Amino acid sequence: MEAYLDNAATTRCCGRAQKIVQKTMDLAYGNPSSLHTKGVEAEKYVKDAASAIAKTLKVSDREIYFTSGGTESNNFALIGAAMANRRAGNRLVTTQVEHASVLNTMAYLEGQGFEVLYLPVDRDGVVCLDALRDAVDAQTILVSIMQVNNEIGSIEPVAQAASIVHEKNPKALFHTDAVQAYGKMQIRPKKEGIDLLSASGHKIHGPKGVGFLYVKEKTKLNPIIFGGGQQHGLRSGTQNVPGIAGLGEAALEAYENLEAKTARLYALKEYFCREAGKLDGVFINGKTGRGGAAHIVSLSFRGIRSEVLLHALEADGIYVSAGSACSSNHRRVSPTLRAIRMEEDLRESVLRFSFSTDTKQDEITYTIEKLAEILPGLRRYARR
Questions:
Q1: 3-state SS, one letter per residue, for 183-244
Q2: Contact at 8 Å (CB) between 208 and 202?
Q3: pLDDT in tens, 260-286
Q4: Radius of gyration of the chain from Cα atoms?
Q5: Which member of 14, 128, 273, 326 is catalytic?
Q6: What is the DSSP pairing of strand 350-354 with strand 196-200?
Q7: DSSP letters for 51-102
Q8: pTM here?
Q9: How far apart are CA 336 and CA 320, in angstroms?
Q10: Residue 326 annotated in active site
């Protein structure tokens, strides 16, 4: 049996997305910037996708900018906003538990002379709003707080945070990395005070290599990619028409019957946490139940290294991540696990199990059964 429980890393492309990707590759192969019929035909797919995504967020089509994925969207938002608003101030604020594409971009901006403040979080990975209130001042031009943590599934109080930011400094911009939230929860940027929002296609059963950045109308943003001036001059380069079309279809499908899908995912999560919690030496990281994201469960296995258990599970057809896919390849200590003050020995034993609408109950049951078989043997081996 196979149990694919690494959906926070990437999801399987849904049938609707696959179909339109193939169709555009076969038929709408023109350059969307070309003025002839083939170009206009390709451009229509781009416009339709922008419209589909805009409807899911209740925003304007013109506020959607297509990118190569979440990493570019985050770079575009942070560097673009910081450089465009530098005359207004020099302070940037983020949290200690952001994705590497935010933390590393902030480190780059520090090297460019910006002051960056990193907000602390509690044991569940939720940002301290009092610290945010203290951090935002007249020199603050941008605050970036993710919507859902990619490692332990913490849901950040984004609307409250944005309200604090705009109350303390109405000119400051608020960005959220919604890569693990978009398509899995309702997001209303206008109501929630979000000026910039990043998302990625392959996290919502769309193609890899495509994402988008929502940019609130009249937000000052500098381009970070220069060329032919596509996308209102803010993001040059020929658009990835098949990828964009696939993303549009995946977005529409993600938001169909969202409540029922979410309830089902929470039921799977609660069952998994309950059964995993019965196993010896297993600890749940972050909030369980509806306190955290429906699709992410982080577990620590005392006395067993993450990579050892990951490959033991893989041998039985179970696929998971060691912490998060982006950080596990580099064998570095996760900033998130440090920030939540996890015991040092448990940091080396974290696995992330992540679900999608494709995940079945028997995959969860199979995984629990295999963990119960594998863990005692691995611990005996580790003690030798």
A1: CCECCCHHHHCCCEEEEEHHHCCCCCCCEEEEECCCCCCCCCCCCCCCCCCCCCCCCCHHHH
A2: yes
A3: 999 999 999 999 999 999 999 999 999
A4: 21
A5: 326
A6: unpaired
A7: HHHHHHHT--GGGEEEESSHHHHHHHHHHHHHHHTGGG--EEEEETT--HHH
A8: 0.95
A9: 18
A10: yes
